Amino acid sequence: MTVEAPATYTLTVGEVAAASGVATSAVRFYERHGVVHAERTSGDQRRFDDSAACRIRVAKVAQRVGLTVREIADIFDELPRDPQPQDWGRVAETLIREAEERTAALRAHLDAMRSGSRLCEL
């Protein structure tokens, strides 16, 4: 008897890559680091759920903010299996807070560099 991936895990690596705007190697990278999750078919092919492309698109935004892939995976660990709009809203709040904190820290570093002090003493 052949066992297939659950019905919710139907998307191939190529489909997720196309929907998220990344290469297939990037999909596998994000899977390896826990940003997306796949089930394996009886033929050992990866199958992703409908949230995989969204997770990758959000991860790309988070990386531009400066978060590491590990930090992103930790944030996504809080998401339920089938994320709803309010769940993504909480992720957005977290990313906004991180972006604001990192922006404030960068501004403080810029101010310090403009202060006239020797750089090695900052």
Account of the protein in words:
This protein has a single domain, classed as Orthogonal Bundle (Multidrug-efflux Transporter Regulator, Chain: A, Domain 2), CATH 1.10.1660. Helices cover about 55% and strands about 5% of the residues. It has five helices and two strands; from the N terminus they run H-H-E-E-H-H-H. It has helices spanning about 15-20, 25-30, 50-65, 70-75, 85-115, and strands at about 40, 45-50. A two-stranded antiparallel ribbon has the order 1-2. It starts with 12 loop residues before the first helix and ends in an 8-residue tail after the last helix.
Structural features:
Multidrug-efflux Transporter Regulator, Chain: A, Domain 2, 2 strands, elongated, mainly alpha, 122 residues, two-stranded antiparallel ribbon, 5% strand
The helix-strand sequence is: HHEEHHH
Specify the oligomeric state.
single chain
Task: Please give the order of strands in the largest beta sheet.
Answer: 1-2
Cα(first) to Cα(last) distance is: 66 Å
Structural class based on helices, strands and sheet pairing: mainly alpha
CATH class: Mainly Alpha
Uncertain spans, ≥5 residues at pLDDT below 50?
Answer: 1-6
Q: Can you tell me the CATH topology?
A: Multidrug-efflux Transporter Regulator, Chain: A, Domain 2
Number of domains: 1
Kindly report the average pLDDT value: 90
Structure summary, number of beta strands:
2
Helix fraction bin: 55-70%
The assigned CATH architecture is Orthogonal Bundle
Strand content: under 5%
Radius of gyration, taken over Cα atoms and rounded to an integer in Å: 19 Å
Largest sheet: 2 strands, antiparallel
Number of helices: 5
Shape: elongated
